[in-house]
Amino acid sequence: MKRIKENLALEFAAVTDAAAIESAKWIGKGDGKAADKAAVDAMRDRFNRIDFRGEIVIGEGAKDEAPELYNGEKVGKGKAVCFDIAVDPLECTNSVAFGRPNAMSVIAVGPRRSLYRAADSYMEKIAVGPDAAHVIDLDVSVKENIGNIAKALKKEISEITVAVLDRPRHNNLIEEIRKTDARIQLFTDGDVAMAIATCLAESPVDVLMGVGGSTEAVLAAAALKCFGGELLCRWKPKEDHIPRLHAVGITDFDKIFKVEDLAKGDGISFTATGVISGPLLEGVVFKQNVIITHSMVITSSPKKVIFIKTYHYI
């Protein structure tokens, strides 16, 4: 399979940079769809300036009836279709609309047929870093998973921190976690960042649990693959999403996906730029004559994490 060269992976940072800057102009203005559209338009425009050819295989937006780069859309000014692309031009739309933390612009890119092609819906997930990658199981209890993770990390259960998206659908999950005596870190949006945070030594998050977007699952898998972490997930669609999944041939909602199912082989890259500061990246900063952005580029071959601070002079 064709691998992504490092200079091309770095060019993708300009794509997320552009989307982050345009969406950041909508911070706190209460209009998430306008912020989303600004990010989508900027991302599409910047992609189409790069000398490569890619196809969007999973995008964010359909489940929320928001603007999107659509599945099957071709981007880039090259001629041959060479790469699969998963995108979330604005991860955490509501965070931007209401001025909350942890919003990013995110893309994952890999060789053809490396990224899982799926409709935009919801999945049940559990994600951990490399030290606990082989001990998690979606078919066992919350208590057993947390106990196994604690043993793998050589921690007491009371020292384990579980990140959970703050949604009513997770009320039972939260109660189960509390019964184990583990810590809980609730967050309003952005499970891509929280999944990746499980791999970072400086992060307090040990495990992500709960139901979140399928696009975010593919994006997180691309990053966790580079770190050696693991993400297990299976479909948990809303009732009105089922026809959408059936239309693309997805009928088995019991199948469990791993990182290698979602991001196959070598040559995967993950790129993100912060919009509002969160656990991974600082947000966009607007000054009188300059806009400052903070991005990260993660590649699987070679395994590398690059942090980029860019000054865009006006």
Description:
There is one protein chain. With 314 residues, the chain is of the alpha+beta class. The chain folds into two domains: 6-115 and 267-313, Fructose-1,6-Bisphosphatase, Chain A, domain 1, CATH 3.30.540; 122-262, D-Maltodextrin-Binding Protein, domain 2, CATH 3.40.190. The chain contains nine helices and 13 strands. Strands 1, 2, 3, 4, 10, 11, 12 and 13 form an eight-stranded mixed β-sheet that branches. Strands 7-6-8-5-9 form a five-stranded mixed β-sheet, with helices on both faces. Helix 5 links the parallel strand 6 and strand 7. Helix 1 (6-24) runs antiparallel to helix 2, helix 4 (142-153) crosses helix 5 and helix 6 packs parallel to helix 7. The protein is globular, with a radius of gyration of 18 Å.
- The fraction of residues in strands falls at 25-35%
CATH class of the largest domain: Alpha Beta
Overall outline: globular
The total domain count is: 2
Quaternary? single chain
* Secondary-structure-derived class: alpha+beta
CA gyration radius, whole angstroms: 18 Å
Looking at CATH, the homologous superfamily of the largest domain is Fructose-1,6-Bisphosphatase, subunit A, domain 1
Largest sheet: 8 strands, mixed
- The total beta strand count reads 13
Query: Segments where pLDDT lies below 50 for 5+ residues?
Result: none
Q: Quote the distance from N terminus to C terminus.
A: 40 Å
* Helical proportion, percent range: 25-40%
**What is the average per-residue confidence, as pLDDT, rounded to a whole number?**
92
User: Count of helical segments?
Assistant: 9
- CATH architecture annotation of the largest domain: 2-Layer Sandwich
- Quote the CATH topology of the largest domain: Fructose-1,6-Bisphosphatase, Chain A, domain 1
SSE string, helices as H and strands as E: HHEEEHEEHEHEHEHEHHEEEE
